[in-house]
Amino acid sequence: MKKSFLALPFVFAACAATAQAEPTDLGAGFSLSGNAAIVSDYRFRGYSQTDFRPAVQVGFDLAHSSGFYLGNWNSNVSSFVFTDGNLEMDFYGGWKGDVGGGLGLDVGVLHYYYPGSSSPKGGNYNNTDLYVGLSYANYSLKYSYTPSDFFSAPDTKGTWYLDGTATFDLGDGWGLVGHLGYQKLKKQVDMDGDGIGHYVDYKLGVTKDLKGWVVGLAAVGATKDNWLPTKYGHPSGRLGAVFSVSRAF
User: Fold this and answer.
1) DSSP letter at 193?
2) Is residue 18 in some structural domain?
3) HEC profile for 105-161?
4) Predicted TM-score of the model (pTM)
5) Mean pLDDT of the chain
6) For 177-191, b where at least 16 C-beta lie within 10 A, e where not — what string?
7) Per-residue confidence at 142, pLDDT binned at 50, 70, 90?
8) Cα first-last separation, the chain
């Protein structure tokens, strides 16, 4: 039986661009860094997670000189999207480093968790993705695969996502960021009951570094914007502007 996307919320990936900060040296090859942001709308793969309302987001990363890392990232979300839940907590770990010729490799696992939420399968909404990413200069490409049901929606095992991002330094603290993603879904329908197996999401934005504070403005959307409705019935993947203020520490 096909499942409505009302039971399949989206998460992660803030629209803010965060400035680089020097990590805190903990000794023995370990370092700790953090980031915080306020965004006018939390979008994940093109879709709003907050009913087009603001979000406060904060994350921490523990890294080792060998390339291994662990991290946690958190954001408020809509309890309409994640029934009875208003907090997203992401936990991830992996390895990243230079594999030669300026090519960077990043492999790991990411777990999404929503305390207090009520999923269609019972218990809290959750999801686990395995990912592998490549980067070269200012370009990156990442593949994410869900080995179990996608965000607690039954019969969605094997859903995957491929996305590419490019950033450009325009000088004097200005930056340009572009993103394009392809989402392949299992057994999903849109708000009108039509079958949907894939879509493309996109983002184009500018950033300005103001002494460590990064201000951003981006246009974000999805080609099939009516996959996930908001509380008021609006397509949450519709094209919209997202404003952000962020800082690394």
Assistant:
1) S
2) no
3) EEEEEEEEECCCCCCCCCCCCEEEEEEEEEEECCEEEEEEECCCCHHHCCCCCCCEE
4) 0.89
5) 90
6) bebebebebbbbbbb
7) very high
8) 47
> For the domain that residue 31 is a member of, what is the CATH number?
2.40.160.40
Report residue 32's pLDDT band, with 50, 70 and 90 as the boundaries. very high
pLDDT over 80 at 155, yes or no: yes
- Bridge partners for 243 per DSSP: 217
pLDDT digits 0-9 by tens, 174-195: 999 999 999 999 877 666 666 7
Two structure tokens written together for 212: 């460590």
Beta bridge partner(s), residue 217: 206, 243
Range of the domain at 197: 27-248
SS (H, E, C) 102-114: CEEEEEEEEEEEC
Is the CB of residue 91 less than 8 Å from the CB of residue 113?
yes
Amino acid 15: pLDDT: 41
Number of domains in the chain: 1
Cβ atoms within 10 A of the Cβ of 171, count?
A: 7
Distance of CA 56 to the CA centre of its chain: 14
| Whether 205 contacts 217, CB under 8 Å | yes
